[in-house]
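INFO batch 0412 | record 1 of 1 | parsing
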Amino acid sequence: MILAGDVGGTKVHLALYDFVNGRLSHTRDERYAAKEYAGLEEIAKEFLGADKVTAACFGVPGPVRDGRLRLTNLPWTLDSRELSLDLDIDHVFLINDLEANGYGIAELQPDQIYPLSEGDASQIGNRALIAAGTGLGEGILIWNGRMHVPYPSEGGHADFAPRNEDEIDLLRFLKQKYNGRISFERVVSGMGMSGIYEFLRDVRGMDEPTWLAESLTEADDPNSVITEMGLAARAEICERTLDMFVSAYGAEAGNLALKVLSVGGLYVGGGIAPRILEKLKDGAFIKAFTDKGRLSQLLINMPVRVILESRAALLGAAAFAEARAAELSGVSARAASAKA
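INFO prediction complete | emitting tokens
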């Protein structure tokens, strides 16, 4: 079996995979609150129990250098060599979380992807991946003539570029809130949704009903309340929050698509997109995505697809672990299962 992990700033999602007929087969998975543990190895040992695995791969937030990463949102330093020794697993790999998502795309079934814009599906070339969740991840899938090879990016930390008066004033509000520069991650992410809501309430003076304020205070995840009330049209401030959020999301997706020249399509991953799928369908995302002046037609021709599968990064991590372990050992579990 293969151990796959998706390591976030708040949650660690682990899963075990096997191979059946050449495809990944999910065995079991579990989520852990990261701050309740001293390190990733402690979580992995608890999850594995008596199970033995031949390889492991963890998708992690941030740039991995020589198999090593210092997490920004947790006091952990991860090292693939130390993890291999501590967990007694021959092959352990660390890759960027968006890189893991990129490898996961090839493992998805058609019903795990929603086509937001058909574009020109006959185009072959690079693809782009953007994923808003706790933070904002961006990735590149380079077409090498045979396949798409995922590469990580930290593009979510590039400077936020406001496009209208509301976003200009939002930028001023966030600069004061965070006392410094504002990246796209401060706008298109979980913290971004909360920030937009606060801006509309405190700067634009939109009404916050008492029942809504109480719900936000009591909720473990205030963004879930904003999302639910916005989609149900129960609070104007929540509706407007979603409007601004989705428009900014589409605009940055279009920026990424231009930089990557992703004629092969853009994929929208992360935890937020599936939860606001109905809002993404209303046209605001695609309008902002394609609003690129003289190059708008280029964006109109790009397919845009939403990843619905929450385990996409785990699938990608498992696929990467098997492929790299096969290169190093000369034994492919995927190939063996296909022959069987």
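INFO post-check: The radius of gyration is 21 Å.
INFO record closed
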